[in-house]
Amino acid sequence: MSNPFPASASQNYGADAAGLICGYLLGTDTPPQEVDSAQAAQWLASLQAGAAPADQFLWLHFNLSHAQAVRWMERHAHLPEAFFDALKDRSVSTRIERDDDTLIAVLNDAHFDFAFEPSDIATLWTSVAPHLMVTGRTRPLRSVDALRTTVRSGNAPCSSVALLAELMRTQASGLVDIVRGVTQRIDDVEDALLAGRLDHKRARLGVLRRLLVRLQRLLAPEPAALFRLLQHPPAWMGADDAQELRDSTEEFSVVLRDMQGLQERIKLLQEEIAASVQEANSRSLFVLTVVTVLALPINILAGLFGMNVGGVPLADNGHGFWIIVAVVAAFTAVAGWLALRGTRDQ
Questions:
Q1: All domains of the chain, ordered by start, with CATH?
Q2: Which family, according to UniProt (predicted)?
């Protein structure tokens, strides 16, 4: 199978020759042990031969932009075909599905250099078996890096499912930080709106709303797949692991509800800004209309008296100019009174 992701020299930084970013051998009573791709291949071979310890499992994290990553997984990891199909699938909505005795998870997370842009979201593909958890990404992601730090510090879960649940909890914590950042930006826009400084706040709100919509669309776990998994988990998954997975998805649900509330708040602010802009445009249009009405008498009289024809009235009168000025002023005053009276009647 060819690698569906294009290789990039900058993206390959930090991975070994097999595209492995990090690997850890974890167990119940043993501290985390960092392994490279050669050691991982040797351990997986012993696992296939039935010689690996039953209380240990391996976590391998790959850079899928590396040309050798998918080939190495096909050769040594013995992952189900559903995992490689998920890599090529265009649907990247968050989901956890069961394929025989393996869990296939597609998760979405923020980039490591997240800048509150809708495009700063990437996908993490995961395969979870009793003794092996494989994760792969094309861009550096926040949650995986935080999980890597947790494992390196010695606070690693005791099973592969617990490690997946910890990854989802870490992702939920990252989303909480994003929600807090969006809330702060919305507060700033709201304060500027109350102070009468509109500037380009509508564009900023539009970017934040698109970000929340994209996050909610990509991060909300598919309920049907999750319900089937929790109702019929694999035989090797313990009750405690299933409960941890259920709790981690509930944390997701809480964050997603907060995001939905922020979307409603942004919508109300956008409507308020639109109403303010429309009111300002209406005032400008009214002022323009009043000026046009006030200038109408003098324009009409100037046009009439400017015609080069005989019989122009008051042409021989010494006070003709002032008489015309008085007539124009009277007509202008009447037009202004009529325009302003219509405004007071509203």
A1: 20-274 (3.30.460.20), 281-345 (no CATH)
A2: Belongs to the CorA metal ion transporter (MIT) (TC 1.A.35) family.
